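Now read these lines:
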Amino acid sequence: MSSTAPSFPDRIELTGEGLVLRDWAETDLAAMPELFDHPDIAYWTPIVSPFDDEAARTRLDRARRLRTEGTALLLAITVDGGTPLGEVMLKRAPEGTELGYALGPAHRGRGLAARAVRVMASYAFEQLGVDRVILELEAENAASVGVATRAEFRLLDVPLITGEEKGRPYALQTWGLDRP
């Protein structure tokens, strides 16, 4: 992390668009496997699979460590501050401020991901002073392309990011949203 980048607060709760984005808590550990242990999440994201109780503990510990390091925020997506429905992430990287998300299968189709991305983007613009946030996603992931579009991101004219994850090749497009 750059020494000029603002640090993340010890605790955070963001509200807007009918959502409360909050810190993951110990009480969320039991709910995390149901949210993240799904073939779609295993295929399209770097989240480990299978996602069991041990993976939940590791993810919670990682979220806390990344926040302390000032590299990333991983927040539970809720509608009322209670039951987690998924996760939204903000990551500081040399290539820019990246957002990401994952929703539990039972909670899809309600616009939660696009709303969570917009709330997190507002936080990045207003509190962190960034000029652009990005999403990196595969063009074949129609649901994520839909989220990017609904959240008013635009496809950037930059080279694809290629690599291999979990034994399969990927090519990521970069979508951007500029500070209003």
